[in-house]
Design goal:
InterPro entries: Phi-like (IPR017359), Prp3_C (IPR010541), RWD_dom (IPR006575), RWDD2A-B_C (IPR059181), UBQ-conjugating_enzyme/RWD (IPR016135). Pfam families: Prp3_C (PF06544), RWD (PF05773). This is RWD domaincontaining protein 2Blike [Saccoglossus kowalevskii]. This protein has 272 residues and is of the alpha+beta class. It is 35% helix and 20% strand. The chain contains nine helices and nine strands. The strands form two sheets. A five-stranded mixed beta sheet has the order 8-5-7-6-9. A four-stranded antiparallel beta sheet has the order 1-2-3-4, sandwiched between helices. β6 and β7 form a beta hairpin. The longest helix has 18 residues.
Length: 272
Amino acid sequence: MDTELQISELEMLESMYPDKIKYDEPEMVGILKSGSFVDGFQISFRLSIWFEDVGKGISLSTNYPTHYPSDKKIEVHLRSDDFDRESQSRINLDIMQYIKESCEVGDLLMGVVISWIQENGVQYFNKTDKLAIPDKTLKPSLQKPFSRLWIYSHHIYSKIKRKNILNLSKDYKVNGFSMPGKPGIICLEGQFVEDMWNIIKSWNWKKIRVKIQEVSKPIEDEKTFCKFNDFTEINFLKSDQTRDYHMDFGEFQQFLTNYGFEYIFKELIGLK
């Protein structure tokens, strides 16, 4: 029943926004539309919403949970090259709050979500400066402190969450890594990690929290404090993995050791 409702909503969107929808796995969507059942597959796509009056657009990314709409709500992430850092964070927090408070489980939600974006999106373009890049010419004592967050999630499976995490790292100039699986681990380091974390934690999670937070000393600059050169997704899954995608703790421990974080492993994972 859920799959049929999802397909009907997609067909409605395709008729309203031809050539604006980009599926992450279009061949699988085609199989579902043909009436075949694909165990465990979740539809994920991006939709471009254009504001003609200002000549700017917003990209909406979403995925359909397996039991949407009967038992789950959709997750969305919004981004635009014309948002500044504050607006990027604010619009995502606002849309998630709207879905949480104004949308009901059991209803198809894309129509009302798009309407909300069309009615409210323009106000987030008001800022003129784009995502701020830290001024590396300032002395370390005058800069915004650098932070490192070690985030523990019960699991990270969703392809759309994984993609959005990678996109957010670019938006907020954050380094570190994301490790999908069970459990899921995210490490964020930079000057705007709290902004990125505020968006991530607003998504639907079974369980997610910051387990460890480290903050730079006044004398430390980015080169001294930050250990990662960029943000990547890493995978250490057991060779005999089941559908639960359990991580290989031994390989993950070695990875942390290679970056000088051997002290983190026990506290992060809770193993002796």
